[in-house]
């Protein structure tokens, strides 16, 4: 069996595959690097799947926290891992939009599922999951409730600040001026979609397009993104584990290529 | 006689230890002398000029003026992690955080003239060239106003055409001629034309050795890493018109050539696995971190658009040619030229990829980067990566983000290499099958 671990900035994920690449199980905990979850995620998954550590032939860690994770045999960047995870799950996909806790990436794949080009957000958190977390907090909602809330919007507000900190104060004043929470939520989604579409413009978008990462669970944002780009967007089952799954596939490949 | 003017001035020429000096040691020694001699000159009442980094320093040198370069000084302050205090001070004085950090460091240094890193004496004259950027005009005007000293400006237009137009060259040449007249007025001395010709010869010789040395990195494996090139930039900025510079760059060239002869690459402890082009100024506050991450990946920076800006070559004595050289810098050129320049470098130095430093300070170098990267990828299949940073302000850089981007570039280059190996294996198999 092969294990992939993805330690992000706001969540930890793990995926376990068998020798044929079939998914045995996966785990997501909404706590990221530096937390107990990051340290324990692999053990939790193995316990849930009833698998012993010694049954793992090889493991790969990815994500923002990969440098400080000690229990894996190798590390691979989240760009390559998301690429491979999606390529095996949705083989026709050529463009991946991955919005994580603190970064947003656009990954272009070739017909073999190899990364040919990628772009990432600038240093600031605009257009990332962190932006949505801040918006959810201002609206007094759970981040998981944003999609349903935004779906009720009739007149989305325009959020002009790209900076997360400024956008927060802008939204607070819009709410104070009487804007409906649903319109603010939709406005936040449109803002992220516009920001990420700018990155897509730099890397280019080739169909088919898929979205991964926790933010892909937000249906309203995926729709906003699709409208902004003018293409349909697929969301793989369990979009959050695509990085961990890709890491597990890398573990399998690295094990096969290991020196005798 | 020559030995008296070069490094270790004042030491007897028979000092054999001098002959065995490495270029790295000589570099440090010369830069130390450059700064200490400037401070001594000031103490002796001689005229000190603050000048932009790619200025026709030939005319200053020929007038026997002491020149220091605020950008080089700011880079030294940044590399030695002493910039944040100056940056804070500049921002407190009302300079926006969006202004070039070299400007912020230097404008604050003018107020608080002491750094633990290095010190330059206050100026008596400003010589500013807009051929490197437009920010310098207002930056140096403010310095001239603060110190109540004269400023000479050499304006240089951007070229929208592929080649630099003759009217631009004439415009710059006339300004150089006017600058000579202004210098004569300020100093009360006439320009010695023979001396000017001599300095032009030295400057060209230095630029030639600089080019010859940096061109050796085209060898595979490269005999040095591009970060060495960044280190040798201080003397190409500060000593371009001095004979000491010739000795240094020749020595560096000889060392690199000897390394090639011995089959040595950039590192003793590991091979050069991948070769990349670096676009933009170094991220000085994180020079060591940015270097170590590349080295850990076996990635060597073998060429860059930035250091080659000092390869200023023209026929000594030809003011028109000199004006053309100063008006033809990479930052002044059109997008089409920039793409061709980068693709030529990529091909000459056989790079596997490119790293673009999106430098918050230097809009002039940055604004073309995304389109250049796109064309390099689409036309020449060169993968690239961007990272946010700054030449001196440490706040614009994230080490974790840099590392992820560099590793992702490495993985892309690995994939491509593996793919091309597979293709050539298949081709040779097919070739064998048809025989």
Please describe the structure with a list of short key phrases separated by commas or semicolons.
heterodimer, A: 260 residues, Nucleotidyltransferase, domain 5, 2 domains, five-stranded mixed beta sheet, 41% helix, 19% strand, globular, B: 435 residues, four-stranded parallel beta sheet, 8 strands, 9% strand
Summary, kept brief:
The complex is a heterodimer of chains A (about 260) and B (about 425). By secondary structure, chain A is α/β, with parallel strands linked by helices. Chain A has eight helices and ten strands.
How would you describe the overall organization of this protein?
The complex is a heterodimer of chains A (260) and B (435). By secondary structure, chain A is α/β, with parallel strands linked by helices. Chain A folds into two domains: 1-90 and 237-260, Nucleotidyltransferase, domain 5 (2-Layer Sandwich), CATH 3.30.420.40; 92-235, ATPase, nucleotide binding domain (Nucleotidyltransferase, domain 5, 2-Layer Sandwich), CATH 3.30.420. Chain A contains eight helices and ten strands. In chain A, the strands form two sheets. Chain A has a five-stranded mixed beta sheet. A five-stranded mixed beta sheet of chain A has the order 8-7-6-9-10. In chain A, a hairpin with a 5-residue loop joins strand 2 and strand 3 (23-29). With 435 residues, chain B is of the alpha/beta class. In chain B, helix 5 (70-79) crosses helix 7 (101-111), helix 9 (166-187) crosses helix 15 and helix 10 packs parallel to helix 13 (243-261). The A-B interface holds A 64, 67, 76-80, 103, 114-120, 122-123, 202, 204 and B 358, 370, 374, 377, 383, 385-386, 388, 396-398, 400-401, 403-405, 407-408, 411-412, 415, 419.
């Amino acid at each position: 069996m092969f294990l992939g671990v993805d330690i992000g900035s706001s969540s930890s994920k793990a995926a376990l595959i068998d020798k044929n690449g079939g998914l045995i199980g996966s785990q997501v905990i909404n706590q990221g690097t530096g937390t107990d979850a990051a340290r324990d995620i692999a053990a939790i998954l193995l316990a849930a799947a009833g698998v012993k550590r010694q049954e793992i032939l090889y493991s790969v860690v990815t994500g923002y926290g990969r440098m400080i994770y000690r229990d894996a045999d190798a590390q691979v960047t989240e760009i390559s891992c998301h690429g491979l995870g999606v390529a095996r799950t949705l083989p026709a996909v050529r463009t991946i939009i991955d919005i994580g806790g603190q970064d947003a990436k656009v990954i272009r794949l070739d017909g073999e599922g190899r990364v040919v080009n990628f772009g990432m957000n600038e240093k600031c958190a605009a257009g990332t999951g962190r932006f949505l977390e801040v918006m959810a907090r201002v609206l007094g909602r759970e981040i998981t409730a944003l999609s349903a809330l935004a779906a009720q919007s009739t007149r989305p507000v325009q959020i002009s600040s790209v900076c997360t900190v400024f956008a927060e104060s802008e939204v607070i004043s819009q709410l104070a001026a009487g804007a409906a929470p649903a319109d603010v939520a939709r406005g936040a989604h449109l803002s992220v979609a516009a920001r990420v579409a700018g990155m897509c413009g730099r890397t280019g978008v080739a169909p088919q397009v898929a979205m991964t990462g926790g933010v892909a669970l937000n249906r309203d944002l995926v729709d906003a993104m699709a409208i902004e780009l003018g293409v349909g967007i697929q969301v793989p089952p369990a979009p959050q584990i695509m990085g961990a799954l890709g890491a597990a596939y890398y573990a399998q490949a690295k094990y096969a290529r290991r020196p005798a | 006689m020559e030995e008296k003017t070069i490094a270790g001035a004042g030491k007897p020429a028979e000092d054999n230890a001098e002959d065995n000096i490495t270029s790295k040691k000589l570099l440090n020694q010369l830069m130390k002398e450059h700064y200490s001699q400037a401070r001594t000159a000031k103490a002796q009442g001689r005229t000190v000029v603050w000048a932009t980094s790619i200025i026709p320093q030939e005319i200053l040198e020929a007038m026997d003026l002491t020149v220091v370069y605020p950008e080089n000084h700011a880079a030294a302050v940044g590399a030695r992690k002493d910039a944040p205090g100056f940056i804070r001070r500049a921002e407190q004085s009302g300079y926006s955080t969006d202004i070039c950090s070299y400007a912020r460091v230097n404008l604050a240094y003018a107020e608080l003239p002491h750094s633990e890193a290095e010190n330059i004496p206050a100026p008596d004259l400003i010589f500013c060239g807009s051929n490197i950027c437009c920010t310098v005009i207002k930056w140096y005007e403010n310095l001239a106003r603060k110190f109540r000293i004269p400023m000479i400006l050499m304006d240089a237009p951007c070229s929208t055409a592929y080649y630099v137009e003759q009217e631009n060259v004439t415009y710059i040449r006339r300004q150089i001629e006017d600058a000579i007249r202004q210098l004569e007025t300020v100093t009360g001395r006439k320009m010695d034309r023979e001396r000017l010709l001599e300095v032009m010869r030295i400057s060209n010789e230095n630029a030639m050795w600089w080019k010859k040395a940096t061109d050796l990195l085209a060898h595979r494996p490269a005999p040095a890493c591009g970060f060495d090139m960044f280190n040798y930039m201080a003397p190409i900025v500060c000593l371009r018109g001095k004979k000491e510079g010739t000795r240094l760059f020749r020595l560096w060239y000889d060392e690199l050539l000897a390394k090639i002869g011995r089959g040595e690459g950039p590192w003793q402890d590991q091979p050069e696995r991948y070769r990349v082009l670096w676009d933009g100024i170094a991220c000085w506050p994180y020079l060591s971190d940015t270097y170590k991450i590349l080295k850990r990946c076996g990635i060597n920076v073998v060429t860059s658009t930035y250091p080659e800006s000092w390869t200023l070559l023209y026929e000594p004595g030809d003011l028109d040619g000199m004006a053309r050289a100063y008006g033809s810098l990479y930052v002044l050129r059109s997008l089409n030229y920039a793409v061709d320049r980068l693709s030529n470098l990529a091909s000459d130095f056989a790079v596997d990829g490119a790293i673009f430093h999106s430098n918050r300070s230097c809009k002039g170098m940055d604004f073309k980067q995304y389109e250049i990267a796109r064309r390099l990828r689409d036309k020449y299949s060169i993968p690239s990566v961007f990272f946010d940073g700054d030449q001196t302000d440490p706040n614009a850089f994230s080490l974790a983000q840099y590392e992820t981007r560099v590793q992702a570039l490495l993985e892309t280059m690995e994939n491509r290499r593996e793919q091309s190996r597979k293709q050539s294996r298949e081709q040779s198999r097919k070739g064998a099958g048809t025989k």
